[in-house]
Amino acid sequence: MLSRGLDEKGxxxxxxxxxxxxxxxxxxHVANAVLFFATRQTPTTGATLPVDGGLPDATPR
Length: 61
Hints:
By secondary structure, this protein is mainly alpha-helical. Helix content is 36%, strand content 0%. It has two helices and no strands. The protein has helices at 8-17, 27-38. The two termini are 29 Å apart.
């Protein structure tokens, strides 16, 4: 936080603005992703479900 010149008030906005959806990611979003796999809503193994609002650096071009 300090290395990026942010204070506590600007930290949430900083992280919100760096994801593609400009979304505030909450613990409820993470819980929904966990429940998706825990309740076996899909027959899958070894899958990764990022709950990050989409990161520009991780988007294939």
